[in-house]
Write a structure and sequence with these properties.
- The chain contains 16 helices and 18 strands.
- The protein is an alpha/beta fold and 434 residues long.
- The protein has three domains: 109 residues, Aconitase, domain 3 (2-Layer Sandwich); 127 residues, Aconitase, domain 3; 158 residues, Aconitase, domain 3, CATH 3.30.499.10.
- The strands form five sheets. It has a five-stranded parallel β-sheet with strand order 4-3-2-5-6, with helices on both faces.
Length: 434
């Protein structure tokens, strides 16, 4: 919006014309962060950043830019967080050198919120450590920083040069996005998960409708979702091209009646079935029945999308007392050290291991093909992570399918893609027989 257009709008409002629409959640966050009474979609604002996150892939590059530019200190080191989670433990000399450089620069710039290898995946750690608050404006050098919308914070991924500027100045420019409303009603059925919901949304909305828009999740169905479920859904907002993916949260900005939406989607949670994204795009989503029976070489349970304690518990529930299929490997990476310890204390890790799963330390490894669990040509994996691009987990001739923790566990037992609802029916019959 130009300065003249803004003046004309304010003059119209002052003249007693119709009241302007209420602001959406994203607009409210950006108005507060930019010190404006209100903002409009399409308007450019300079906003103060509440929290900035870097992981080990980019931290050395970002902080190195500041050092080369002669920047002696950060605008506010207390707002910066660095998490080592992608290449951990370092799988190569090059990765080790990169991390050593990042450690030196973290000390040089006085960043106290530094989390070493083993603490966990950046988005999980940010939430566990209270580095994100409802209503915050958050940026990260990871595209899945939309995860913070689960807390009612406006989070998005940015590039290295943008992060360097934000660290030095404490602010960044934004174009105020339009908002797509997802109205949720009802409750998820047994063996249907938040991952199935977000895959369904990617299927329905695609990767173009929400480009540089904010997705706002509301309705009575949103209230039925746990924080872990909201994190799964907000995490994959970026797969629809969204700038932000927000849920209402206590103390955070929420849309009010009269807010203006570019589009609205209504979803009955009770009508959803397990979903699977098939190669090689996340929006290629089908009902699980359409791919049931496809042979699998590997199952992956983890990532910032589905590595939380609830996810591990669900897989352990299905695998309890059973063994994964012969010839199939299952890799589990808890999302954080906190999740790892809790799963150990509850016996969840023991149950997963007894079923034949390999338990790795907290980190991103298999999700983005950095190391651990890479695929050979012709191999097929079903994982609980967020992307299935060609070559995402190793060979470009491998295939990656995406599903929920329940679908992953059921598939690991069967050795083929399987519908977890059918396993639940089988379990019920076994109990009756006994």
């Amino acid at each position: 919006m130009t300065a003249n257009a803004r003046i004309e709008r304010l003059a119209k409002d002052a003249s007693g014309a119709a009241e302007p629409p209420e602001m959406t959640a994203a607009e409210t966050v950006l108005a507060r962060a930019s010190g404006a009474a209100r903002v409009e979609p399409g308007e450019y604002v300079v906003a103060k950043i509440d929290a900035m996150m870097m992981h080990d892939i980019f931290a050395a590059d970002v902080l190195g830019m500041l050092e080369r530019a002669g920047i002696e200190r950060l605008h506010d080191p207390g707002r910066a967080t660095v998490v080592f989670d992608h290449m951990v433990p370092a799988p190569s000399v090059a990765a080790a050198e990169h991390q050593a450089k990042a450690r030196r620069l973290v000390r040089r710039y006085g960043i106290e919120a530094f989390f070493e290898i083993g603490r966990g995946i950046c988005h999980q750690v940010m939430v566990e450590e209270g580095r994100v608050r409802p209503g915050d404006l958050v940026v990260g050098t990871d595209s899945h920083s939309t995860t913070y919308g689960a807390l009612g914070a406006a989070g998005c991924g940015i590039g290295s040069s943008e992060m360097a500027y934000a660290l030095a100045t404490g602010e960044l420019w934004f174009k105020v996005p339009e908002t797509v409303l997802v109205a949720l009603e009802g409750r998820l059925a047994p063996s249907v998960a938040a991952k199935d919901l977000v895959l369904f949304l990617v299927r329905e909305i695609g990767s173009s409708e929400a480009q540089y828009r904010s997705i706002e999740h509301g309705g009575s169905g949103a209230d039925s979702l746990s924080l872990a479920e909201r994190m799964t859904i907000a995490n994959m907002g970026v797969e629809m091209g969204a700038k932000f993916s927000l849920f209402p949260a206590a103390g955070a900005a929420t849309a009010r009646d009269g807010a203006r939406y570019a589009a609205t989607h209504h979803v009955d949670l009770s009508a959803l079935s397990p979903q699977v994204a098939v190669p090689h795009h996340v929006e290629n989503v089908v009902d699980v029945g359409e791919v049931a029976g496809l042979h699998l070489d590997q199952v992956f349970l983890g990532s910032c999308t589905n590595g939380r304690i609830e996810d591990l518990r669900e897989a352990a529930r299905i695998l309890r007392g059973r063994r994964i299929a012969s010839g199939l490997r299952m890799i589990v990476t808890p999302a954080s050290s906190t999740v790892y310890r809790q799963a150990a204390e509850e016996g969840v890790l023991t149950e997963l291991s007894a079923a034949g799963a390999i338990i790795e330390g907290p980190g991103c490894g298999p999700c983005f093909g950095g190391h651990l669990g890479l695929l050979a040509p012709g191999e097929r994996c079903l994982g609980t992570h967020n992307r299935n691009f060609r070559g995402r987990m190793g060979s470009p001739e491998g295939e990656v399918y995406l599903g929920s923790p329940a679908t992953a566990a059921a598939s690991a037992l069967a050795g083929v893609i399987a519908d977890p609802r059918e396993l639940a029916v089988s379990d019920t019959r076994q109990e009756v027989t006994r």
